[in-house]
Amino acid sequence: MKIKSIVAGLGLCFICHSSFATTVGFAQVGSESGWRTSFSESVKAEAKKRGIELKFSDAQQKQENQIKAVRSFIAQGVDAIIIAPVVETGWTPVLKEAKRARIPVVIVDRNVQVQDESLFVTRIASDFVEEGRKAATWLMSQPQAQQQCNIIELQGTVGATAAIDRAKGFNEVLAKHPQAKIVRSQTAEFTRAKGKEVMESLLKAEQGGKSICALWAHNDEMALGAIQAIKEAGLKPGKDMLVVSVDAVPDYFKAMADGEANATVELNPHLGGPAFDVIEAYLQGKKDIEKLIRTTGDLFLQDTAAAEYEKRRLN
Ligand code: AHR
Q1: Which residues pair with 280 in a beta bridge?
Q2: pLDDT grade, residue 2 (50/70/90)?
Q3: What is the CATH number of the domain that holds 140?
Q4: What is the pLDDT of residues 191-230, one digit of tens each?
Q5: In what order do the strands lie in the sheet with 122-126?
Q6: Is the CB of 35 within 6 Å of ligand 1?
Q7: Coiled-coil segments, which residues (predicted)?
């Protein structure tokens, strides 16, 4: 209920916890990947656990749908809004509308480019540049990458922070290894179907892919689609062509355990808890909240893949 944040803003938050139910709108990107589905489930489960009424919107990877959803949350007078933005730009007008309605906004995962940082409370996110660096550092440590190493890159959604920053981090490391270069790079929009389709056409353009040393995919989902394409081209993914990616979803652990993928950098999908912690603190009057709350993730390889798959597949 909107009144709760106003009361909290006036410093009268002794009534905040018990007297009103909190309503939060969540403008999610879509359901393009296993990682995204786990993230949505985390927010839904955490809302339920805390007795928060959640209004969930799936934008099907379209920013215009997200903007419509945010406007509808504002019209309904929610207490707070979570946005997981599809792309970085184009957010200022709707964020200003939320601010005018005194509704706090928390950005989760990808970033927004705005001049006025007071338009959102905080951003909870991983360091995508570092993820790209970790992936490339692992790849450059492999024996196959010591000679000439031609790489195919499957990029995420154009304009999305996860695509922009992962490419940046990866290329930063690659610049120190002149024997390695990205010979083909194309977006596959973070989906498995596109990952397969785009990889098929890139392998054709590369005469079947025999001269390709590695696939670098901006997420596991695209890598899983591409693995299928590599197999259909008569090559062994994970052996003839190294496969490195980001997310650490169960299906990718299975592919690593089967020897068809080599490495992944974990992206934590359990973002519901931290997002609601910030919202509850803000609604209770806490205003000195850091502008960026970082999540971290490790690099996983084939040696632990089977055990990780067992641990994660039912979660
Ligand atoms: O923004 C994070 C990325 O979005 C994840 O790596 C990917 O799986 C999702 O679609």
Answers
A1: none
A2: low
A3: 3.40.50.2300
A4: 999 999 999 999 999 999 999 999 999 999 999 999 999 9
A5: 53-58, 23-28, 80-83, 105-108, 122-126, 292-295
A6: yes
A7: none
Q: Based on the fold, state whether residues 18 and 96 are members of the same structural domain.
A: yes
Cα dihedral 297, 299, 303, 305 sign: positive
Other Cβ atoms less than 10 A from the Cβ of 178: the count is 8
| Residue numbers of the domain that contains 84 | 3-126+268-296
Q: Are residues 165 and 308 in the same domain?
A: yes
Share of the chain above pLDDT 90, in %: 92
User: Which tens digit of pLDDT belongs to each residue from 145-178?
Assistant: 999 999 999 999 999 999 999 999 999 999 999 9
Give the pLDDT of residue 12: 46
Same structural domain, 171 and 119: no
Split into its structural domains, the chain has a count of: 2
153 in ligand 1 pocket by Cβ < 6 Å?
no
Q: What is the largest CA-CA distance in the chain?
A: 69
